[in-house]
Every structure is written in structure tokens, then in C-alpha cells.
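>> Question from a student workshop board

For tomorrow's exercise we were told to take the sequence and the ligand below, predict the bound structure, and bring the output to class. My setup keeps failing. Could a helper post the expected result so I can at least see what it should look like? The ligand is adenosine-5'-diphosphate.
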Amino acid sequence: MASLTLDGVTKSYGKTRALTELSLSVGDGEFFVILGPSGAGKTTTLKSVAGLEPIDDGSVHIGGTDMAGVEPYRRNVAMAFESYALYPQKTVHDNLASPLRSGRTGTYSRAEQDERIREVTETLGIAHLRSRFPRELSNGQRQRVALGRVLVRPAGAYLLDEPLSHLDAKLRAAMRAELKQLGAMSSTTTLYVTHDYQEALALGDRIAVLRAGQVVQVGTAAQIWSRP
Ligand code: ADP
Ligand code: ADP
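>> Workshop helper replied:
Here is what the output should look like for this input. Compare the format with yours to find the bug.
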């Protein structure tokens, strides 16, 4: 529903340079992975798109519109952070319903809410946990609920920051397949950050390799794989 373009984006935090003239173009409906080691600038790239950090130079376009001066909540993107947070006093169901009840997303009937929550919880393998509270969940289950809070709401693009980092290897592999399917089904543009190259190769329609705030390679998994 929305293409994403970063053009010559430069960003520093004080004296620390996070991004240097970073340019990326993500097609409408593409599942695009940013792969790179810790400190490469992956999270900063997502925050630049979401409008959560001001950029020093360059531009960000979403769906062809320049986002300069556009507030985060008007950008039509949904971002999930590695440090996920759930409402401790709400059940899984109510944690997933709250993004659908906030005024900015339009209104959903109770039946529509339940239907979307059912779809998302089934995809994420947490349908049986809907009446539990966060304290009654494992870390991996909590992470899936947090991801559900992003995916439950229609958005022009999903910005996902290491969404599988707290899962064990087996669950991570299963979730990879499911996420890919979810991306294909919903055809929502997804910008997905990871430091795990297997995850990147498994998920990405295309992958950008980020190092020290710059894109050093962009291509399909096959193209990235074939280079030394
Ligand atoms: P990644 O997500 O790839 O680990 P980040 O975008 O988080 O990379 O960070 C890129 C660089 O910017 C790193 O050197 C990091 O230490 C620095 N950085 C990130 N956020 C802040 C911040 N809020 N204040 C100061 N430096 C930061
Ligand atoms: P992990 O090692 O993945 O963190 P846990 O040992 O925390 O997993 O939990 C294992 C299983 O027990 C999970 O299915 C989780 O939902 C369930 N569980 C954990 N804590 C509680 C609790 N307080 N009440 C009910 N079920 C729980």
C-alpha cells in the first residue's frame, strides 16, 4: 500500500554518526530486510521512516509523499520495537484490541475487531492464549503478542525491529515461514530489521546490508548469497 524511499539520509546523535547519506528504495508490497551488525544504524533507519528521530539531511518519502514535517502518527506506518511492551493488566485479547480502538485508526465494530484478532493470533500461534495475562506468558509468547499488536492494525507499511529476537531457534524458524506467508497474504510493505543473515535470506524479497551507517550491498537473497 506504500512504497518507502530514503534518499541521502544522514543522522547523528551528538558526535556519533549513525547514518551517512543512506539511500534505499522499497517497493509497494515488498518484504525488504535490512541486515547488519549491532550499531550499523538499522534501528535509526526505521525511526527515520517512522518519524521518531529527526534526520539531519536527506529525505524520506512514504507512498511518494515527502515526510518532512509530517508527524509520526500521520505517516501510516506501524513500528514494532525489540523492547516490546504489553499492558500488564489486560488480557492478550485486550492487548490486541487496543490498537483497533484508538481513534486514529478509524472505528471497527466488535465483530471486526474479533475477526482481525482471531486471524492474527492464529497466524502467530497464540490463539489459545487470548484470555491470558502477559505475566502468564513466556518471553517468546509475549513477543508474539507484541508483534500481533502491530500486525492487527492495517497500515501502509510495517516496520519491524528484530521481532523474533527472543524466540528459541525452533520457534524462530517456524515464525519465519509464517511471517513470510503473512507478508505475502497481506501484501503490506514490510521493512524488517535483523542481524541474523539466515533470517534475512529466508524472509527478504530483497536485502540491504548495512555497515557503519551505509548500505554496502542491495539485492535478492540469491544476489547477496553469490557475492563473497
Ligand atoms: P543498530 O540498530 O544497527 O544496532 P542503531 O541505529 O541503534 O544501530 O545505532 C547506530 C549508531 O547510533 C550506534 O553507534 C549507536 O550507538 C548510536 N545511537 C543510537 N541511538 C542513539 C541515541 N539515542 N543516542 C546516542 N547514540 C545513539
Ligand atoms: P520460556 O522458557 O519460553 O520463557 P516458560 O517456562 O516461562 O517458557 O513457560 C512455559 C509455558 O508455561 C508457556 O506455555 C507459558 O504460557 C506457561 N506459563 C508460564 N508461566 C505461567 C503462569 N504464571 N501461568 C500460566 N501459564 C504459565
